[in-house]
Design goal:
Blueprint lengths: L1 H11 L8 E11 L8 E5 L4 E3 L7 H14 L3 E6 L16 E9 L8 H10 L5 E10 L10 E4 L11 H17 L3 E6 L5 E9 L4 E5 L5 H11 L2 E6 L7 H4 L4 E3 L12 E5 L4 H11 L6 E4 L3 H13 L6 H4 L2 E2 L11 H16 L19
Length: about 375
């Protein structure tokens, strides 16, 4: 989401009377690649770009391709094959061993449904999952759609633009499947009258929201790192004990007795870090009544077990289901010592939990780093 916000900011600053722009989007990856599907890069015809589609190896050629799309006012799908030994192939010698499809779409500033405008509407909307269908290739006769077009899926009525009823049904099935798996994937379809369609169906969840419940100095490196990653942070604490820089940085701050006003959804994580036993116990009971996907408690395991036992004695038993989302001690075992290292440990665990990963060294992983299409 951070990259999308940066692209939107750059897009809004363009002198639209004098400067053309195009959006480059990774719509398919077969094999290994530094960036995955959904990676984007905004390019202007004067050579300025924001975002990225690779580790820097493809961006140079992508600038040329994007400017050509702007000149032609036409989308194009370009395949980069980093598995090819041909010395004239872009990406040869990189060792990535992947095939990457990049869609270059010129941006029509007057079209409020151009790809960046649709991304703006997603970011501006309430926190929810967004589904985007990007048309990457067309063969045959199509009336209402064209290559490069992005359709925001809000229900099956959104698919009527594709006209063919069977195609709409197949698209809806793929979308439901991807929502269940939280995956973005490319697909190819063929209609009964011989038309062919390639699309990239993107599942775009909101950014992870960290709710930090405490007031000690270890909150500050956490908020800085959260901002760098591009997640959202909220602090729940005693306002009078907090540095005013938190508020000036635009981080929402709530008092403990305002906890019910904090917007917490299934894309949220809560970290109990008051360093006070009674406060953490009270806040754990509150946290369990939310939809937070992750609840972390700083401190040793014995401390957390004591909290569980006391809550049980008060008739507030922590269920086995709730224990699955409680991480105590919070963080990955990286030997963290300083507040900054502890922040790294915490956020790495949160990312692993939301990705349904174990958080181990990649060299111990028996399968590919990312699922292959």
């Amino acid at each position: 989401m951070k990259e999308i916000r940066a692209i939107i900011k750059a897009y809004d600053s363009i002198d639209q009377e004098a400067t053309g722009a195009a959006l480059a989007t990774v719509v398919r990856v077969d094999g290994s690649s530094y960036r995955r599907t959904g990676a984007r890069m905004l390019v202007t015809d004067n050579g300025i770009w924001v975002g990225g589609i690779s580790g820097g190896c493809l961006e140079g050629d992508a600038l040329i391709r994007a400017r050509y799309a702007i000149f032609k006012s036409q989308s194009s799908l370009i395949t980069y094959d980093t598995t090819d030994d041909d010395p004239y192939q872009i990406g040869v010698g990189l060792g990535c061993q992947g095939v990457i499809d990049i869609l270059f779409t010129p941006l029509d500033y007057h079209n409020k449904n151009n790809p960046v405008e649709i991304l703006k509407s997603c970011v501006a909307a309430k926190r929810q999952m967004h589904i985007l269908i990007t048309v990457t290739e067309l063969n045959g006769k199509w009336v209402n759609i064209k290559a490069g077009q992005v359709i925001q899926y809000t229900g099956n009525d959104s698919l009527k633009i594709f006209e063919d009823v069977l195609l709409q049904k197949e698209l809806a099935e793929k979308i439901d499947q991807q929502i269940q798996n939280l995956q973005s994937k490319p697909w190819q379809f063929a209609t009964s009258d011989g038309n062919k369609l390639s699309v990239f169906i993107e599942v775009l969840p909101p950014e992870i929201h960290l709710v930090l419940m405490g007031h000690q100095y270890d909150i500050y490196p956490l908020t800085r790192l959260i901002a760098e990653i591009g997640w959202r942070a909220t602090v729940v604490s005693y306002r009078f004990k907090l540095n005013h820089n938190l508020v000036s940085a635009g981080i929402p701050v709530f008092d403990f007795d305002e906890f019910s006003d904090v917007p917490i959804d299934e894309y949220s994580a809560i970290v109990l870090m008051s360093h006070d036993f009674k406060t953490d116990k009270l806040n754990l009971a509150r946290s369990l009544n939310t939809k937070a996907h992750y609840i972390g408690i700083l401190g040793p395991r014995v401390r957390a077990e004591k909290i569980f036992k006391e809550l049980e004695g008060e008739g507030k038993t922590v269920s086995e289901e709730d224990r699955k989302r409680i991480y105590a001690p919070a963080g990955l075992d990286i030997g963290a010592l300083s507040p900054e290292e502890i922040a790294l440990s915490l956020l790495a665990e949160v990312r692993a939990v939301f990705s349904e990963r174990e958080g181990r060294s990649l060299r111990l992983r028996q399968t590919t780093i990312h699922e292959r299409n």
